[in-house]
Amino acid sequence: xCGIVGYVGLARKTKSVLYEGLKRLEYRGYDSAGICYIDxxxxxxxxxxxxxxxxxxxLNKIEINSPIGIGHTRWATHGKPSELNAHPHSTGxxxxxxxxxxENFYELKNELEQKGAKxxxxxxxxxxxxxxxxxxxxxxxxxxxxxxxxxxxxxxxxVAVLNADEPDKIIATxxxxxxxxxxxDDELFLASDIPAILPYSNxxxxxxxxDFAVLKKNSIEFYDxxxxxxxxxxxxxxxxxxxxxxxxxxxxxxKEIHEQPRAVFDTIRGRFSDDFETVIFNDFDENLIKDVSRxxxxxxxxxxxxxxxxxxxxxxxxxxxxxxxxxSEFKYREPVLDSNSLVIAVSQSGETAxxxxxxxxAKKSGVKTLGITNVExxxxxxxxxxxxNTKAGPEIGVASTKAFTTQVVVFYMLSIYLGLVxxxxxxxxxxxxxxDAVAVSKIIQKSLKLDDEIKELSKDFYSYKNFIYLGRGIxxxxxxxxxxxxxxxxxxxxxxxxxxxxxxxxxxLIDENMPVVFIAPDDEIYYKKLLANFExxxxxxxxxxxITSSSGSLEILGEGDRKIQIPKCSNLLSPLITAIxxxxxxxxxxxxxxxxxxxPRNLAKVVTVE
Length: 610
Ligand code: F6R
Hints:
Elements: E1 3-9, H1 14-24, E2 32-39, E3 42-49, H2 52-60, E4 68-74, E5 89-91, E6 94-102, H3 105-114, H4 126-137, H5 142-152, E7 155-163, E8 170-175, E9 180-184, E10 187-191, E11 203-206, E12 212-216, E13 219-223, E14 229-230, E15 235-236, H6 241-245, H7 252-258, H8 260-268, H9 286-289, E16 294-299, H10 301-317, E17 321-326, H11 327-330, E18 341-347, H12 353-364, E19 368-373, H13 379-383, E20 386-389, H14 402-421, H15 427-447, H16 450-458, E21 466-471, H17 476-490, E22 493-498, E23 515-520, H18 526-538, E24 543-548, E25 562-565, H19 574-593
Parallel strand pairs: 16-17, 16-18, 18-19, 19-20, 21-22, 21-23, 23-24, 24-25
Antiparallel strand pairs: 1-4, 1-10, 2-3, 2-4, 5-6, 6-7, 7-8, 8-12, 9-10, 9-11, 11-15, 12-13, 13-14
Helix pairs in contact: 3-4, 4-5, 8-14, 8-15, 10-14, 10-17, 14-15, 15-19, 16-19, 17-19
Bound molecules: fructose -6-phosphate (F6R).
């Protein structure tokens, strides 16, 4: 989510390489940015909160004649978005930019503080500059200090380090976060993502985990973490920059579908106590929340569907009366809200006009409000009393995918939290639910294997003009979401229904021209009922795609019907798994139809009008 750039050379202006590189990383989303360069023997840092333009305004006022620098765009994890917490972080002559998370940050910070270190920011990154500086003061070389630092650090990182006392080099290292170098004869470029530096050279070197690279104007050396020299060869990259931004995927939507295990994992990371018995929401004031007896959720589109799943979770786990309402309706309906109501506004962008207006309307009644958004500084985050951020990372495809699954997982955690606060579940029950959540990323990962199978299946279905999606219980919203996904990117008419409702009208639509997609995870209550609905459709000639985790044989499936086998998962988390095949189905059908998947006609990613 954060972005790194670096430059060493005389051929170009360091300021413009850093700024242009950061600009090319803009699509990732960020909340602050900064650069550091060395002038003489001094490391100068310039940072700004908010848009890159704010940083640019500062850069425009100064002349930079340095041949070396590093830059960063930040997406806050530890410490709120602010100029102070923006990177680079400096301790004495050492300046650092960092992507990733230092998992043992508290222990290391405590250790350093006991040795006299003074921290100025709330970030995990500052321990890196502090540690390197500590080792240098202890008599180690710059290179050895960096290696010793990362020997102590746990977590994921891509890092670039400058040292004003050795102003000719950048040291870079990585583990689990990408870092690449581009080279020309007498200059080197460093970045977290190829697009940032591709315009300068397509000779790219990919750093491997635990590599240390020492970059000088016309030399580069690589070491492993025992300081043995290693060789890293460059590769010629012939992708166009747009393709690379999509990490080789044809569309952002497909990339974002595949990012869901990571997005869900990032969203739950750090939210559970070590013993898995409690959920940690530092933003909440438990005293304000414990008397909540009624929840009203308001949202639009896909966020509304995630909220419908949230209702099942909140009522089932925390036993709170919960209503969900489309934001565009909520605002004008004069909803009855009392002082024990909590209004939750859910929005990927945090800027949707309908949702933010509904939130403002709710606030007039003096109720407590909670925003669930994917963008930290968004309007809904700013206006809500409490905020829970999803960590999906920037979502670029107009059709929402990874934001949806992260919203669902936030509702799950919130339900456990409120269940514990209200004492309707005990720690033992919470532990079981939390363990299921911890395991779910891997199950999502497994279901991504369906990509090829559904691509193949889409061949038989893309020419239909109408579709029906059916689900029950907590998977009824997935029927709605599946239909919405298909509509918005393939322009095929699709409807989602609660399967039990078919007999009350919609079944009249069924004939051989109407494919019906069943969302049918193998659960105790609904699966058998869905089989009965299945028979009703079959008897009327409908063509079926049956998405299920049941491994039982389905004799009733006819020749044109298809079964999609999904992995098993707890009932409450099953929407995270059933969402995957419906996303793939919409994507592959649209791809066959040749529509503009990432920017479908008439739609905008952020709807700022009512
Ligand atoms: C559907 C989709 C839209 C959004 C809706 C709300 O794929 O993306 O339906 O879900 O416009 O947007 P946010 O969540 O940003 O408030």
